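Morning F.,

Quick status update on the modeling queue. The single chain you submitted on Monday has been processed. Sequence for confirmation:
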Amino acid sequence: MVDIVVVRSANSVIFDPRVKKITDSLKKRYSVLALGWDRSGVSRGLTESDKAKMKLFKLRTSFWKPSLIRMFTRLLIFFPLFWSWLMIELFRTRPAVVHACDLDTAVPCYIYKKIFRKKLVFDIFDRYAMVFIPRRYKTFYRIINSLEEKISQKSNVVIIAGGEKVTSTFKTTPPRCITVLNCPEDYQEVETTRSTKENDNVLEISYTGGIRRGRGLEIIGHILNHINNVEFVIAGPVMDKQVLKELGALPNIRYKGNLIPTEAIEVELNSQAIIALYDPELPWNTITLPNKLFEAMMCGIPIITNIATEIVNETQCGIVVGYDNVEQISQAILTLRDNPELRKKLGDNGRKAFLQKYNWTAMERKLFNIYEELI
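Structure tokens below.
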């Protein structure tokens, strides 16, 4: 019998670090099955090597840029196929609780809840309309936003991954709403292959996330084309091939591929700074707290970023810059390259904040409290 089914559609459940943390934590106390959508054709070895019990719906689709035609194609053709498969799996396994990650899995999970009178945990990684639907499609935006709000009201528990500011985006706050931040586990406690740089004058900066526009990657590439002794290591799914092509033309930028969460953390542990820039034109980016901030804290290295400025300034764990401010970003990189003492100080500050507050052990306790009430 399965106690909990965790469902995620994006990136499959294999490459999503939050899903892995949730399933690894819950299986300490419950029988857990992870259901996901394999959109990119992951190798069988990856699914078999993962510790969590998992099943994947195998249907390849590309990463889609915002477009009304593409959104409707996905909603009318691809999602019904995934949802049908998901409903069959839920009917077959009959879990006591379904943990739905984001709106694109919550719809069939809510139907299952109503039919079988089970429990639904709605884990909101992103407010769906705010992230995926351009504001110019006002009617479509309102429909999707209203649907998400309705399911939030009807869920047994709503979990917010992006911080307390996200709750202010609801017209009516969900009755049972709990913040469980996307903080990492403490990988410094386990053996790693952290390297020792042969040349301390070379600064290695890392970025692990979607390779696409809106993350400042082109800006960083332009800057690094004019700065010596800085290497930029990137990893993640290629969502815009043109961006990767532009970056790949530069000698001091290395692409490591689309990595599983532990491998991505390894890249960060082997770097001396993390950079996380988010286009503020997307309203969601001004509200949510990025997991890269917490990963930098865990690694004990500084972050260069333009969001979550309150936490960065409060903890003194990095350098705040403007998203497209070339001068500020350049100066931040040069400062960290030329001042190892400052790098250590900022990294130590972040590590202290991680140990005190922003760690997965603290978030796991919240998760257990939720499920103790449900099961």
